[in-house]
Amino acid sequence: MKILNILIILFAVSLNFEVYAWFNISTNGISTNDIFTLISVIVFLKLAVWDGMEFKIAKNPAVLFFLMFFATAFISGFTPLLSGEGSHITQYFKTITNFCFIYSILFILILNRFENETWNSFIRVWLILSIFINIFGVYQIIARALDLPFAWFNLTSASFFSRNMNEVDELSQLSLRFESFFRATSFFSEPSALGAFNGITITFALIPGIKKLKPFIKSKFLNFIIIFFTIIGLLLAFSLTGVAIVSILIFTLFLTERLNVFSKMLKILPFAIILIYIADVMVENYSGISVLEMFGMRFGSIANIFTGAQFGSGIDGESVTTRSENFASMVAIWQSSPLIGVGLGLTYLSPYADGWAFSDNSFGAVLAELGILGVLAYLLIFISIYVVGFKILNQSNVYNKLDDNTKRLISIAVYLMGYLFVTNFLSANNLINIASVFFIGMIYSITNNYYIDYPKNYFTFKFVNKPIKLFFVKKNSENLGKYIL
């Protein structure tokens, strides 16, 4: 198997351990993801320049909007450059360097063809890993209550130090306590990350079966175990991120699929409800508090914030309030430079930041730092990705021609939009985050394969006319000839 394919499959593991760095350089933690990305770039350049490989570039309209968005990150640099502020210019160049490095994996996923079987292997590894991650999450909430080993992990990445304004060695996993119940985090930095992980996992595990396609894991028992612990993990994380991803998945099913497919999803709900109820009873028995009741209180808190009415008792410190205040500051920053933004990475240096170091969501970051040009391109990325996938799945003359493997992966690409929407527009700032960028690239790769294999709508491209290695082979041959003579 080609080394790039192996690296892509290994990302299924490394993406979930981003908070642990091998070492730190300034405010950046060098994680396994960074090492894999660097190796991927080196291998890709070797193929492109040294070997002179010819690439098939799909004429996927969604790719154009990504290129537009990428360009706006450079255009935003005019604001700090024209300001003449040394600290602004330095920060911009630090951020744009990191931005280019992270997004290099997306370029590789667009330019290099990764066969569908590579993505099948990636998903299988992810699903198997989910069993261990969720089982450990269950153990960890018990360990925290009883002070057992491995109850907490220290985060070692300086990237989290810079965000939390804390010492790296002292930064631990975040998990709020409710009486004797601690929210599950497993190996992640906080419960919402575990919720997002399980949102992706439930998509991989359920969508093929709902659409009457072969599951990625052949064993029915193993599939049951994966779904079982994923649902438990979603409950114990007590995360609105996970709930929102699953809710959008169900809504997308209703919007995208025929009634018989949607009804199949509804048949799974009784099993999920019974499982959640049993798990909630077990948690209440040992902790004295019901997670389902807490969800009700949390939804009540959000309803109270948005309506001003009183819907039962709420939970103090609901993050929706601080998120709305954060977004208001992002709007104020945007108004200071509405067209091209204040510059990538310069939120915390803006006089309108009101003390915020960064945006709480990617959309706010794009608005403030890249302006209206960046926002338009960013929105078009997500809209075009969904439209492309939706058209493939819902045009019977197109869909019926696809092999089952392609049908399954295109379906996954469409439903991953729930994860990307929630973690970029609602719950997190993943603008320069390897996981979010990787999954966007995964969707591009899958849809690009469709354009190349079926309508054969692509063009070929070479970075060099002649492989660089030929020049060295020729030179060595001439030197050898001289030596023989």
Question: Can you offer a commentary on this structure?
Answer:
This protein has 485 residues and is mostly helical. Helices cover 68% and strands 4% of the residues. The strands form three sheets. Strands 1-2 form a two-stranded antiparallel sheet. Strands 3-6 form a two-stranded antiparallel sheet. Helix 2 packs across helix 5, helix 8 runs antiparallel to helix 9 and helix 9 (220-237) packs across helix 11 (259-287). The longest helix has 33 residues, at 362-394. The radius of gyration is 24 Å and the shape is globular. The model is unreliable at 164-170 (pLDDT under 50).
Task: List descriptors.
two-stranded antiparallel ribbon; two-stranded antiparallel sheet; globular
SSE inventory with pairings:
Layout lengths: L2 H12 L6 E5 L2 E4 H19 L4 E4 L2 H15 L2 H6 L2 H26 L4 H31 L11 H7 L12 E2 L2 E2 L8 H20 L9 H18 L2 H17 L2 H29 L3 H17 L11 H18 L25 H33 L1 H4 L4 H12 L1 H10 L7 H20 L4 E4 L6 H17 L1
Antiparallel strand pairs: 1-2, 3-6, 4-5
Task: Please outline what is shown here.
By secondary structure, the protein is mostly helical. Helix content is 68%, strand content 4%. The protein is built from 19 helices and six strands.
